[in-house]
C-alpha cells in the first residue's frame, strides 16, 4: 500500500475532504479569493473548509466547488463518505438497543440543561458592544498616523502603535457584535501593517514579515479585500528591501487578485510588480506593469499632490511616476528615469515627506551616472543634498539606494574625492 494511502487511513473524513479541496484548487491554479468569487461564497468559508478539524463543508457548496474545479464528483463523493463517518460516530449515543428492555417511566423531574438565566446570559454576550465613539477615535487616530508617517521619524510612532494594537486585541476579546468585530479587525490589521512598515524601515525583516502576515490575516477576518491587497503590498515592499525580488513579485501579483481594479491596484502594479521586475531584469514586464498602473489610475479616484505613501487609498500621479522611475533605474534606462522624475518632482518638491524627496533625488543622481554624458560632480552633489533632507531620520530605502549609487559610481570612476565624500556621508548615516 502506498504511503499516501497509509496517510489517508489516519485522516478523518473531514480532514480528507479539506486536503482534497485544497489539492484540487491548487491544481486548478486558483487562489482562495478567486474560487470564493466563482462559487459565490466568502473567502473565509472556503478557507476554513480547507483546514483539518473544521466543520464539514456543506453539501451545496462542495457541489459548486466540485463543478468549478472539474473534480468529476470526487469531492462530492468524499464529502458523502465523511458525512456517513460523522453520523456513525454519533450512532452509539442515539442508537436503539437491539434487545430493548422495558421502557423507562416518563419523568418530569429530570435536570434541565439550560435555564432562563443561561439563555439570557448567552444573548447578553452576543450583544456586548464597544462604545461607537471609541471605534471612531481609533479609526481617526490610525488615519492621522498614516499622514504623520510621511513627516516624522517612523520609530517615534511605534510605542503608540503597539499600545493601540494591544488594546484593540483586548476589545476583540470583549465585543460580541459582528459589525464592531469587523471594524476592530480592520483597525488591528492596519495597525499591524504600520508596525510592519516601521520594521522594514529599520531593516528588521523577520519582525516585518510577521507583522505584514498578521495584517493580511486580519484583513481576511474583516472580510476586507482592500485591506488584504494593502497587506500584500506591504509584504512585497518588505521582500523588495530584503532583496528577495522573486518573493516581492509573487506577493504583489497575488495582491492584485484581491485589489481587482480598486484603490490598491495602482500601488501593487507600479510599486510592487514593476519595481520587482526591474530588479529581475524583465524590461518587458516593467513596461507592462507601468502601463497597467496608469490604466488602473483611470479607473480610480486619484488624489492630488503627494498623499501618504502608506494610505489605504489610491496612489497619486506623482507617486506612480516616482515608482516608475525606480523600476526603470534598475534596467539602466536613464532617459526613462529622468522622464518620470520630471513628472513627479513638482509635487514632491512641495511635499512634507523628506524621504520621498530624498529617494527621487537619489534615483535622479543614479540615472546621471548611467547616462552617456555622465556628470559625477552633479550626481554626487544631488546625493549629498538628498541625504541632508532626511538627515537624522534614516530609513533602509535611502541607505540601500545610496549604497547602490556608490557601487555604480566606483565601478565607473574608481577612487575619487567625490565618491569618498559620499561614502563618508553614508557611513555617518548608517552610524546613527
Radius of gyration: 28 Å
- Tally of separate helices: 21
Overall pLDDT:
84
Low-confidence stretches: 1-6, 91-108
**Sheet with most strands:** none
Strand-pairing-aware structural class: mainly alpha
What distance separates the N and C termini? Answer: 63 Å
Helical percent range?
over 70%
Percentage of residues in DSSP E strands: under 5%
The total beta strand count reads 0
Q: How many separate structural domains?
A: 4
Query: Which geometry do the CA atoms define?
Result: globular
Would you list the SSEs in sequence order as H and E? HHHHHHHHHHHHHHHHHHHHH
Your description of this structure?
There is one protein chain. This protein is an all-alpha fold and 432 residues long. It folds into four domains: 89 residues, Orthogonal Bundle (434 Repressor (Amino-terminal Domain)), CATH 1.10.260; 92 residues, no CATH class; 96 residues, no CATH class; 80 residues. 72% of the residues lie in helices and 0% in strands. The chain contains 21 helices and no strands. The longest helix is centred in the middle third of the chain and has 24 residues. It is globular. The chain starts with a helix and ends with a helix. 39% of the residues are buried. The N terminus is likely disordered.
Amino acid at each position: 500500500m502506498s504511503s499516501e494511502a497509509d496517510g489517508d487511513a489516519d485522516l478523518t473524513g473531514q480532514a480528507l475532504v479539506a486536503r482534497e479541496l485544497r489539492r484540487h484548487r491548487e491544481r486548478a491554479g486558483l487562489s482562495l479569493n478567486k474560487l470564493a468569487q466563482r462559487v459565490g461564497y466568502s473567502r473565509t468559508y472556503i478557507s476554513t473548509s480547507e483546514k483539518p478539524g473544521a466543520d464539514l463543508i456543506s453539501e451545496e457548496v462542495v457541489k459548486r466547488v466540485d463543478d468549478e474545479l472539474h473534480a468529476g464528483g470526487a469531492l462530492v463523493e468524499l464529502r458523502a463518505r465523511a458525512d456517513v463517518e460523522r453520523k456513525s460516530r454519533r450512532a452509539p449515543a442515539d442508537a436503539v438497543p437491539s434487545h430493548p428492555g422495558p421502557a423507562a417511566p416518563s419523568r418530569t423531574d429530570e435536570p434541565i440543561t439550560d435555564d432562563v438565566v443561561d439563555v439570557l446570559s448567552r444573548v447578553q454576550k452576543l450583544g456586548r458592544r464597544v462604545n461607537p465613539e471609541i471605534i471612531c477615535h481609533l479609526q481617526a487616530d490610525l488615519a492621522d498616523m498614516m499622514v504623520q508617517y510621511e513627516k516624522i521619524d517612523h520609530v517615534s510612532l511605534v510605542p503608540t502603535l503597539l499600545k493601540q494594537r494591544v488594546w484593540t486585541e483586548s476589545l476583540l476579546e470583549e465585543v460580541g457584535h459582528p459589525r464592531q468585530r469587523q471594524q476592530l479587525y480592520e483597525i488591528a490589521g492596519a495597525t499591524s501593517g504600520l508596525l510592519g512598515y516601521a520594521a522594514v524601515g529599520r531593516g528588521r525583516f523577520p519582525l516585518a514579515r510577521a507583522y505584514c502576515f498578521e495584517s493580511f490575516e486580519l484583513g481576511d477576518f474583516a472580510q476586507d479585500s482592500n485591506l488584504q491587497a494593502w497587506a500584500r503590498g506591504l509584504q512585497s515592499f518588505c521582500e523588495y528591501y530584503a532583496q528577495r525580488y522573486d518573493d516581492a513579485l509573487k506577493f504583489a501579483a497575488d495582491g492584485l487578485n484581491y485589489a481587482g481594479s480598486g484603490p490598491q491596484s495602482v500601488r501593487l502594479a507600479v510599486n510592487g510588480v514593476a519595481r520587482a521586475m526591474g530588479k529581475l531584469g524583465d524590461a518587458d514586464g516593467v513596461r507592462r506593469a507601468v502601463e497597467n498602473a496608469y490604466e488602473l489610475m483611470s479607473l480610480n479616484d486619484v488624489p492630488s499632490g503627494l498623499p501618504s505613501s502608506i494610505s489605504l487609498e489610491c496612489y497619486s500621479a506623482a507617486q506612480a511616476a516616482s515608482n516608475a522611475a525606480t523600476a526603470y533605474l534598475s534596467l539602466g534606462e536613464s532617459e526613462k528615469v529622468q522622464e518620470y522624475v520630471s513628472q513627479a518632482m513638482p509635487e514632491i518638491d512641495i511635499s512634507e515627506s523628506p524621504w520621498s524627496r530624498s529617494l527621487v533625488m537619489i534615483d535622479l543622481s543614479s540615472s546621471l551616472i548611467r547616462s552617456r554624458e555622465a556628470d559625477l560632480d552633479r550626481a554626487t552633489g544631488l546625493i549629498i543634498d538628498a541625504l541632508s533632507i532626511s538627515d537624522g531620520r534614516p530609513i533602509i530605502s535611502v541607505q540601500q539606494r545610496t549604497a547602490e549609487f556608490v557601487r555604480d559610481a566606483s565601478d565607473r570612476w574608481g577612487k575619487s574625492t567625490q565618491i569618498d565624500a559620499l561614502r563618508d556621508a553614508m557611513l555617518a548615516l548608517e552610524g546613527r
